[in-house]
């Protein structure tokens, strides 16, 4: 089954070229089924790039999915045309009345700001609290994962002196958890962040399980026992070239970045990329949609239970 996206969304052409089945709004309206309702709160400055990355990962499932693209505020992002935002994005106020089977909240390039200094902190905490009443399962990515942990559990992330950047080996810690179903015992995933929360801190939090972690990158996938919150501290959605683009950007900004680890062939930035994470990235989102969303959500979203 396809993912349903707005008519004329740029991602449609990219995904069609990759032979990924997408359906626009007009065609989806003729389907006599109850599709999953998934919201994407996109905090990244380059909205179109992030849309394509996330929609690609959501596409590998037999379920039909309706996607709402949600913006945090009305400010025009620097790297996305205003017309794109006006045509394809909804404000939170426009969807606050709805219930969703799943919600994805992306990372944001604001690693060094204290949470209270983030201009939309009050708004995003409102959305996090709203999700406890209106969403079956919420997946928080990178910065959003640390921000949600701080909001719900009160523990602030630590900041590394040097950015964690590269592709790291992770071990599955909970082989029988459905989110890890089909994963190899050791798998790779990209990270690009300054924030860090120690594994023992997650382990000491009642109701949370560290499902996958790395000796170099720390906790990668943490989930609540009721499956309604998932914290992913890395970037399974990254394109092959994304870490290189970030590295070159940091060089241009004179930030003296370290070469991303385990990413370039022979650790040579002039060499080809070693792309070793995409199959597990796809599997993670497929498992989330199947086991944490589809198999737990009520048929009538009005019956969605409120989180404690």
UniProtKB/TrEMBL annotation:
Gene3D superfamilies: 3.40.50.880. The active site is at 142 (acyl-thioester intermediate), 235 (proton acceptor), 237. Its EC number is 2.3.1.46. Substrate binds at residues 163, 192, 249. It catalyses: L-homoserine + succinyl-CoA = O-succinyl-L-homoserine + CoA. Keywords: Acyltransferase, Amino-acid biosynthesis, Cytoplasm, Methionine biosynthesis, Transferase. The record marks 192 as: Important for substrate specificity. It comes from the Bacteria. It is found in: Cytoplasm. The record marks 111 as: Important for acyl-CoA specificity. It is an enzyme of class 2 (transferase). Pathway: Amino-acid biosynthesis; L-methionine biosynthesis via de novo pathway; O-succinyl-L-homoserine from L-homoserine: step 1/1. InterPro entries: Class_I_gatase-like, HST_MetA, MetA_family. Belongs to the MetA family. Transfers a succinyl group from succinyl-CoA to L-homoserine, forming succinyl-L-homoserine. This is Homoserine O-succinyltransferase. It comes from Aliiglaciecola litoralis. The gene is metA.
């Amino acid at each position: 089954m396809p993912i349903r996206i707005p008519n004329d969304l740029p991602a449609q052409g990219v995904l069609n070229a990759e032979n990924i089945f997408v359906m626009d709004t007009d065609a989806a309206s003729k389907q006599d089924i109850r599709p999953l309702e998934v919201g994407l709160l996109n905090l990244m400055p380059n909205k179109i790039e992030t849309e394509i990355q996330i929609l690609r990962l959501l596409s590998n499932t037999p379920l039909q999915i309706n996607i709402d693209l949600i913006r945090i505020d009305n400010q025009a992002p620097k790297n996305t045309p205003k017309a794109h935002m006006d045509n394809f994005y909804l404000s939170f106020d426009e969807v606050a009345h709805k219930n969703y089977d799943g919600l994805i909240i992306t990372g944001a390039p604001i690693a060094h700001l204290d949470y209270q200094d983030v201009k939309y902190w009050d708004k995003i905490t409102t959305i996090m609290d709203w999700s406890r009443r209106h969403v079956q399962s919420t997946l928080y990515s990178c910065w959003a994962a640390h921000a949600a942990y701080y909001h719900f559990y009160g523990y602030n992330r630590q900041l590394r002196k040097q950015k964690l950047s590269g592709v790291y080996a992770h071990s599955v810690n909970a082989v029988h958890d459905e989110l890890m179903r089909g994963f190899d015992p050791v798998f790779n995933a990209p990270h690009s962040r300054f924030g860090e929360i120690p594994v023992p801190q997650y382990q000491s939090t009642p109701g949370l399980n560290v499902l996958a972690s790395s000796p170099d990158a720390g906790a990668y996938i943490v989930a609540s026992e009721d499956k309604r919150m998932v914290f992913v501290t890395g970037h399974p959605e990254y394109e092959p070239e994304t870490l290189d683009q970030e590295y070159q950007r940091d060089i241009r900004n004179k930030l003296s970045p370290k070469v991303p680890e385990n990413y370039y062939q022979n650790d040579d930035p002039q060499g080809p990329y070693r792309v070793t994470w995409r199959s597990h990235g796809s599997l993670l989102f497929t498992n989330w949609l199947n086991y944490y969303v589809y198999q737990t959500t009520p048929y009538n979203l009005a019956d969605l239970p409120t989180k404690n």
